[in-house]
Amino acid sequence: MRVRLRFSKVGKVRWTSHRDIARMWERAFRRVQLPLAYTQGFSPRPKVSFGLALPTGAESVAEYLDIELAPGATVDVESLPALLSPALPVGIDVLAAIGIDDRADSLQHEVTSCSWTVEVVGAPVDKVERLVADALAADSLVVSRERKGRLSEDDIRPGLLSVTITGRDPVVLECELAATPRALRPTELLRALAPDGGIEAAGVRRTAQWILRDGARSEPLPAPLDATDAPPAPSLERAS
Prior knowledge:
With 240 residues, the protein is of the alpha+beta class. It is built from 5 helices and 11 strands, in the order βαββαβαβαββββαββ. The protein is elongated.
């Protein structure tokens, strides 16, 4: 049996790397003695699959984790949020859990776009409005990206699906950015808006991940309505 968990990552724990978060989850599973399936071989590991990696420094109320239970194990899936949240660090809370088809595609394969809330500093709202309008009207937006130690020039305009200004003091952007063929990060969007600098992200939060099935868009697992209410935590350090 496979189970999908939706969890949040907010507050100081947002500076914890994706790899360390994975270790925290493994410790939590051991603490609550969850009967997970394990890989074979010299060093067995629990069969756990994360969704899209979250940039270090960003918050999220829409992170996902798929786990595989041991053959024959019985678990009350609805009780998992209350069971696991106390075993995790402060700032990580399980928001929802559901059983999924064993044949379901991986989250990294299914997710096509993500929604973000970005608090912007460094420029007044009227300037940010002009920058956003220019970006949406542009045929291309080229930024430099580093991958495996190499720089490349990429046109990110196809990945900019939508961006609107929903706050003026502070300036807040609501964005939907593509996750394929390569995920577009909010900080890359800001570099495209102002190539010479001048604006930065003071707070970044992922609010949704989206999948397409039979032409309909949906979340892999909806969260309680109040899970996305709080604004992103401001920070003077920029998310990577």
